[in-house]
Amino acid sequence: MNQESQDIIVQPDPLREFATTLYQKAGVSVEHAELMAELQVETDLRNVHSHGTRMLAWYVRSMLSGEMNAKPEIRVVQEAPGIAVIDGDNGLGHPPSALAMKMAIEKAKSAGIGAAGVRNAGHFGAAACYSMMAAEEKMIGFATTNTGGPSVGAPGAAAAVIANNPLSYALPAGEERPIVLDMACGASSWGKVRTLQMYGKPIPPGWLLTADGVPTEDPDEGRILTPAAGPRGYGLGLTMGILAGPLVGGLMACHKHQGEPSEHFFIAINVSSFTDFAAYADEIDRGIRAIHATKAAEGVDQVYLPGEIEWLKREAWVNDGIPLHVDHLRELASVAGELGVEICWEW
Amino acid sequence: MNQESQDIIVQPDPLREFATTLYQKAGVSVEHAELMAELQVETDLRNVHSHGTRMLAWYVRSMLSGEMNAKPEIRVVQEAPGIAVIDGDNGLGHPPSALAMKMAIEKAKSAGIGAAGVRNAGHFGAAACYSMMAAEEKMIGFATTNTGGPSVGAPGAAAAVIANNPLSYALPAGEERPIVLDMACGASSWGKVRTLQMYGKPIPPGWLLTADGVPTEDPDEGRILTPAAGPRGYGLGLTMGILAGPLVGGLMACHKHQGEPSEHFFIAINVSSFTDFAAYADEIDRGIRAIHATKAAEGVDQVYLPGEIEWLKREAWVNDGIPLHVDHLRELASVAGELGVEICWEW
To answer: What is the pLDDT of residues A140-182, one digit of tens each?
Structure first.
């Protein structure tokens, strides 16, 4: 069965309204419901379906069951001229994360750099949502988070020791699109392994280890994900789990369990505190054009910048609608049914 | 011929004095000469010979030829409460880089986070020298630099587009040693490729591409280094070259040529502005011990933390002396002979 044939086109505006309504039905304030819908639909528009509205049903059910706090009292618990720490009161991760990046941006306006951490909150979705907030303000943004307990190994380990933590940098340009890196520190993810397995496709070598730390391409034998580029991904994943972890009052991955609240960490670097923004932006534009003009390998149409393919998807889908998998929509329809909300697409 | 048999043991104290004298003979101030010797011998002690005193002869000759400024006027050209930009006046990279990290640390004491960039300076040696300065002050340190013109490809490219830029994080612990990540963004380096070629050893698959962007394991056919973990190393290398580049008034790799002055970039994050340092340090210590206790794969003695093997080398070599390759020492002896300085080892 072709994967595309399982997609249904959904328009972003109605999807945003639908998501806002569902969050409100789960007890979330209008302000937070609109923010959640905005960030999740933006993530879908960038073709990062794993981190967009696909997560909505899970979040809503966590609030309905009382596992997650629908009406958190978000508080700034530490503050200095360049930094802040925010307690998310066991609520959704996106609202305190957006506040943290806003505070980092404000602080960077006067200090030149600002950072903010969040503790005791849910997942924050895609890291790029927050780094891009800084790029919109002509700043370089950085965002990271931890993904809970250990799932990725260390070089030489026969057990997982770090989480598959992502990190994102967004770098503003002038006339060109911002450069947006959003990567995990593992060689892959369990989600990708299970998807390949479901479609009967081979698992690329180097992704998985058995419980004895022996490389395997058999998804049933695989117990440990490898870190991307060995010691590099291990070191980065460990570091991200300390920034979004003990630095803001949380735990390291090896002491965490799935389902516990998460920590997040953000930096904003104000370009114009360092140099003339126009000169910076001209140089970035020139660099982007030079990379576009680079000779491509055989069979490759052109060389892209990090995040560029996501920008191109967004530019197309904001008009044409977002293709969403029927399983993704079935899950949304199920939670909508429970809450008496009408769906915004036709089957 | 065994590689170890080509090593001669040199004691760190006399090596430091020797290096200090050589820099002074090249016209460098006592203060900068001592700093250079200190950082380069520390780098040798950590078994990072590629970035320690091995570079001394090249730096000294660059100053003697007038290509590099031996008596730079190091100036702070931009400043805000959390940041600074320093112009290195085309001198050695280490002195303005150490000043930049010191300024970042000072700013982080009051602002919670500090950053500083350096432009118009030479190479800065090993990135970990600077990130570790922050860890000594109970801060999380970050350091990056650019390595000049393009040498590493992008996914799908048949030409190099980014430099093989390193990045380092140093994270303080309590009773345990700081965690020190120091990595390049390429899958390997030309230095390693040439060393393997010299010893007649195979080049690991995935490191090299031909001029047409086709993977090769033949070092004579290889023209492009691949980025570590494909899009991850590409994105990180590109980002590091913008932080240590256009952000501080420099150029992107695709507009640079080898031998031009470099840019450097540093961040210090003051842990105690975010959380109680003792609680942070306890959690890091607990995490380090949990990782040490992790089951190791067959044939592996134990799982190490990033930078730990370098700490163990340092702890042994600070007493036993540093094994340095005869070619490394011949080069030092040659420049010492030209400047009338006695060597501090026996052949």
So the answer is: 999 999 999 999 999 999 999 999 999 999 999 999 999 999 9
Question: What per-residue confidence (pLDDT) applies to B319?
Answer: 97
- Of the pLDDT bands very low, low, confident and very high (cuts 50, 70, 90), residue A257 is confident
Q: SS3 string of B243-278?
A: HCCHHHCCCCHHHCCCCCCEEEEEEEEEHHHHCCHH
Q: Exposure string (b/e) for A115-137, b if CB count within 10 Å is 16 or more? A: bbbbbbbbbbbbbbbbbbbbbeb
Which pLDDT band, with edges at 50, 70 and 90, does A2 fall under?
very low
Does B233 lie at the interface with A, CB-CB under 8 angstroms?
yes
pLDDT of residue A275: 98
Residues of B in contact with A213 (CB under 8 A): 295-298, 300
Cα gap A54→A19, rounded to integer Å: 11
Record the tokens describing residue A147, joined without a space: 């993904």
Domains and CATH numbers, chain B: 1-71+311-347 (1.10.1530.10), 73-186+227-293 (3.30.1370.60)
Query: What average pLDDT is seen over chain A?
Result: 96
Per CB-CB distance under 8 Å, the chain A contacts of B155 are 303
CA distance B54 to B70: 19
ipTM rounded to 2 decimals: 0.97
CA distance A326 to chain B (A): 29
pLDDT in tens, A273-314: 999 999 999 999 999 999 999 999 999 999 999 999 999 999
So what's the pLDDT on residue B6? 87
What's the confidence (pLDDT) of residue B2? Answer: 44
Q: Do A298 and B231 touch (CB under 8 A)?
A: no
Both tokens of residue B161?
């587009």
Burial group, residue B333, by CB count within 10 angstroms (0-12, 13-18, 19+): middle
Using the Cβ of A22 and the Cβ atoms of chain B, whether some distance falls under 8 Å is answered with no
Chain A residues closer than 8 Å to B248 by CB = 274-275
Shortest Cα distance, chain A CAs vs residue B181, angstroms: 6
How close B239 comes to chain A (CA, Å)? 7
What is residue B77's three-state secondary structure?
A: strand
Residues of chain A with C-beta less than 8 angstroms from the C-beta of B152: none
Does residue B303 belong to the interface with chain A, where contact is any CB pair within 8 Å? yes
Q: Residues of A numbered 82-111 whose beta carbons fall under 8 angstroms of chain B's beta carbons: which are they? A: 82-83, 85, 107-108, 110-111
User: How many Cβ atoms sit within 10 Å of the Cβ of residue B28?
Assistant: 24
With an 8 Å Cβ cutoff, is A159 touching chain B?
yes
Q: For residue B322, what are the contacts with CB-CB under 8 A and spacing of at least 6? A: B9, B10, B11, B12, B15, B41, B44, B45
B257 part of contact set with chain A, CB < 8 Å? no
pLDDT for residue A4: 58
